[in-house]
Design goal:
This protein is 37% helix and 15% strand. It has 370 residues and is of the alpha+beta class. The chain has three domains: 134 residues, no CATH class; 115 residues, no CATH class; 91 residues, no CATH class. A hairpin with a 5-residue loop joins β3 and β4.
């Protein structure tokens, strides 16, 4: 019996360490993933980066996160999970992908073991999600430059503008330093098939997060597609000037550049095609925001100061990520029910009654920080 206890004492530290990566392994995989990311055409890293953006695991400026994963353990774990997902949750395929990234041979098997053990319970769901993402086109199977053409695609198509021979990119269209891609001008990105225009515009909001000044916005989306207008905050107060991309269309996006190099990107159109962090967009029900946040959160009562805005994410996935959401109730015809959520009070997003009110996202702002 004493011998068994002695063996357990020896084995427990080994078992515990199996769930933790060494500093050299963390440094190695972080450096190698950054190198592959900067190539801008590596299918595995395109997939990982898209998933980091969709899930919000990479924060608002996911390009910066991908270049220094070792500084954010949670982001590194998420990136490794998505690499495992890209590998079809198959250990041998994962090992092959790690080797293809030139991970040091001494770190390959510890990394593979760590990744598999951390995500084995999610394997089936991850494989199914990957298949669905490819099926609906949420993640590109073929990597190509996708820059934004004019919103009036018929006019551009009639002019015969066709993108030819563009070099590959990671579907961001902006270099990691924030300078716009010179691979193709914005006016030359309409492909046609059988005479019908095909939308090749890049709807990834990450392009904007990487920009430092309005000139980059104008260059990337085209001066004819951007207007400078007065801006207001969620309560209708003056918020200065905003650059509006595709103004007066369903794809309208408002960008405010601040003097400290931070920016605010706001969406208010329900039919917008933009792909934003966390996958949240105007028109989404509050239940979806609950799921993305991973827990309930606190909302300010409607028709009051900061009415309908999130007061606290309660430590969820969107906490301290620069995400500001304004909700509205679609079905406010029941005064007794509506009064429960109005006035100087705060309510939980988990309240079942909110479904009867049809509470949805009205506006969403992503605020970047230095």
């Amino acid at each position: 019996m004493k011998r068994i206890l002695y063996l357990l004492v020896l084995l427990l530290p080994v078992a515990a360490s199996a769930q933790k990566l060494s500093e050299s392994a963390v440094e190695d995989i972080s450096t190698k993933m950054a190198a592959q990311f900067l190539k801008l055409n590596d299918p595995a890293l395109v997939f990982v980066t898209e998933q980091m953006s969709r899930s919000g695991s990479g924060g608002l400026e996911v390009d910066k996160t991908m270049q220094d994963l070792k500084k954010d353990p949670a982001a590194l774990d998420a990136a490794l999970k998505f690499l495992y997902q890209y590998s079809d949750c198959n250990r041998q395929t994962l090992i092959a992908n790690l080797r293809a990234m030139n991970v040091n041979s001494g770190n390959v098997f510890p990394l593979a073991t760590y990744i598999v053990n951390n995500n084995k319970d999610e394997s089936k769901a991850l494989v199914e999600e990957k298949a669905e993402l490819y099926r609906i086109g949420a993640i590109p199977k073929q990597i190509s430059v996708m820059v934004a053409p004019p919103d009036n695609q018929n006019q551009a198509a009639a002019a015969g503008a066709v993108l030819q021979g563009a070099p590959p990119a990671n579907a961001t269209g902006v270099t990691p330093e924030g300078s716009t891609s010179a691979a193709s001008p914005a006016k030359e990105t309409i492909n046609t098939a059988a005479g019908m225009p095909v939308d090749t515009r890049n709807w990834d909001v990450r392009n904007v997060f990487a920009m430092m000044k309005p000139d980059q916005l104008l260059e990337f989306y085209g001066k004819e597609n951007v207007a400078l207008r007065d801006a207001v905050d969620f309560e209708g107060n003056d918020a200065g000037k905003a650059w509006v991309v595709y103004p007066d269309t369903e794809n309208e996006m408002e960008v405010i550049f601040y003097k400290d190099s931070t920016k605010a990107v706001t969406f208010s159109k329900e039919e917008s095609k933009w792909r934003s962090p966390f996958g949240i967009k105007p028109g989404d029900p509050i239940d979806k925001v609950n799921k993305v946040n991973g827990r309930g959160f606190r909302v300010n009562g409607f028709e009051w100061t900061h009415g309908g805005t999130v007061d606290s994410w309660e430590g969820g996935a969107m906490d301290k990520k620069g995400v500001v959401i304004l909700f509205r109730a679609v079905n406010s015809g029941d005064p007794k029910l509506y009064d429960k959520f109005t006035g100087e009070k705060k309510f939980s997003s988990n309240d079942a009654s909110l479904k009867k009110l049809g509470v949805i996202v009205e506006k969403i702002t992503f605020r970047t920080y230095q």
